[in-house]
Amino acid sequence: MTPIACNLERIRNQIADACGSARRDPDHIALMAVSKTQPPEAICEAWTAGQRLFGENRVQEWQAKLPQVALLLRQTITPTDLAGSHSEQTPSSSSSAASAPVAPNPLRTTGVASPDAPESATRMPFRIHLIGPLQNNKTSRGAAIFDAVDTLDSLKTADRLSAAAQALGKTLPVLIEVKLSPEATKHGLAPEDLPGLLAALRPLRQIEIRGLMTVPPLFEDPETARPYFRRLRQLRDENLALCPTLTELSMGMSHDFAVAIAEGATMVRLGTAIFGRRSYP
To answer: In this predicted structure, what is the pLDDT of residue 100?
Structure first.
């Protein structure tokens, strides 16, 4: 068993333990492998170990990795793998658990490396979400090469994403990122602005609001992050009547995901715990 496979097995057991303590069903927790700065080989190793949901921080980084990931997967996958491997690891009880259908040729690579042709995206036998800030000049490309955008925080970006998705003939699932920390490095919508944005998003038929996402400050003691997770859950509950599809809670990372699960997370985003410490360029 490879190191990444061992890490994934350990993490799945830890998620099951956290769910047991919180009296929750582990099948209702989606595990996202955060593969930013990781090489294509690491992504394929995680895929081979059964991981089917990934997150990347930058449009340009994922676009650059796409051709090599596709090439490596061609060398390892079988037609049987492709038949059912594009389903997203999302909570089975959630109304948003449906995933995009598998394209006839999931690994076509026509034009994926060309920034001038963002509509020519590769279909992978897994789902890939954008979990970093989305610049307005990259919305078209992001809509093309990601299965979902988890960091929506403005109507302007939503308008651009909706137009891009319409041009692609797709509906794009989104999470709204809420900023609950005063840190200048954190991104997201102010909590008090959430109801207004939800109302403004109603006419946009090409994006589907699925829930909320947040990144709390990094604390040495994971328990210190609990109030941030609890606040996000409260915001979700307070706005469900306004937006019934607002069900997902993406919160919790490698050091604090057990606390996030206790507070209602439906998706946890783990990078270091799966791939090891990152080596930044």
So the answer is: 33
Does position 84 have pLDDT exceeding 80, yes or no?
A: no
Q: In angstroms, what CA-CA distances link 59 with 78, 136, 156, 279, 280?
A: 28, 11, 18, 19, 17
121 burial via Cβ count (<10 Å: 0-12, 13-18, 19+): buried
- On whether residue 279 sits in a domain, the answer given is no
Dist. CA 18–CA 29, nearest whole Å: 10
Give the bridge partners for 208, in sequence order.
173
Q: Which residue range(s) make up the domain with 238?
A: 3-272
For residue 234, what is the domain's CATH number? 3.20.20.10
| Mean residue pLDDT across the chain | 86
Helix, strand, or coil (residue 64): helix
Alpha-carbon span 53 to 33, nearest angstrom: 6
Its pTM stands at: 0.85
Residue 259, both tokens:
């606390």
Q: Sign (positive/negative) of CA torsion 174, 203, 188, 28?
A: negative
Using alpha carbons, select from 72, 74, 68, 98 the residue that is nearest to residue 86.
98
pLDDT digits (tens, 9 = 90+) for 127-152: 999 999 998 889 999 999 999 999 99
pLDDT digits (tens, 9 = 90+) for 30-83: 999 999 999 999 999 999 999 999 999 999 999 999 999 999 998 766 555 544
Residue 277 within any structural domain of the chain: no
CA dihedral 209, 210, 215, 221 (to 10 degrees): 160
Q: Is residue 70 part of a domain?
A: yes
Q: How many domains would you assign to the chain?
A: 1
